[in-house]
């Protein structure tokens, strides 16, 4: 028998009282233990979908099963499997950090004596243990984000939904948060669904991706298969000494010089990056560093949501 998926959404639709259709016959399956990206432009339907999964909204039609439990028929049991980190801070600003976790555990029938060691473990892992007796309103924005994650994990959910969890968080803190997320994904087999506007995070962390657009699933595939569709990439070369003339390169799609220390080269599939290095070297140009102008997933995402292109992407 095949493994029950962590999340199974079938023919899900949501039309609000004003007639706006946020979701249109959406079906989606997330396997157990995966790190899954759910992306889409603003207004695509992501928040509505997460709201339905977390029981904030009722769907117009369709079903949601969390580890095989029907969310509509047995919401209490289904939500035992689920942890959600929403975009907005929604805890008591005057409650102490540790107490917020203990209170949350109580909602799931977990006694304080059982919740305390779990809270200590989470707060230490997320760098908040020294703040356990502080009121949440005294925390920095990054600390509040980490507190939201700890609260969502206090009852040991098997499915964790992270809705823009690193919005406004500095790069160093984002990296430490993702290290922790990867750890619980691997060590505790926690299935994670991520929404983010930092597309490089999705590319780095997630093995599978679904893209919502205008309430419909446009893409639902393995990350590696989606990225394989990208045939054009732009590379930025930072040179060691200022350029004194216009660079000419052969065998490339395009070359630009934004300033006298930078060369941007666009390559189409089949064109050689090594050939670019060789030509620059022949012209006496030393490359100090090289990077992608934008990450690959971002380029694909922009192609998908640009309504002027209508360029089909296979799923």
Automatic annotation (TrEMBL):
Pfam families: ABC_tran. Residues 7-239 form the ABC transporter domain. One of its GO terms (molecular function) is ATP hydrolysis activity. Keywords: ATP-binding, Nucleotide-binding, Transport. PROSITE patterns: ABC_TRANSPORTER_1, ABC_TRANSPORTER_2. Signal peptide: none annotated. SUPFAM superfamilies: P-loop containing nucleoside triphosphate hydrolases. It comes from the Bacteria. PANTHER family: ABC TRANSPORTER ATP-BINDING PROTEIN (PTHR42711), ABC-TYPE MULTIDRUG TRANSPORT SYSTEM, ATPASE COMPONENT (PTHR42711:SF15). This is ABC transporter, ATPase subunit. It comes from Psychrobacter arcticus (strain DSM 17307 / VKM B-2377 / 273-4).
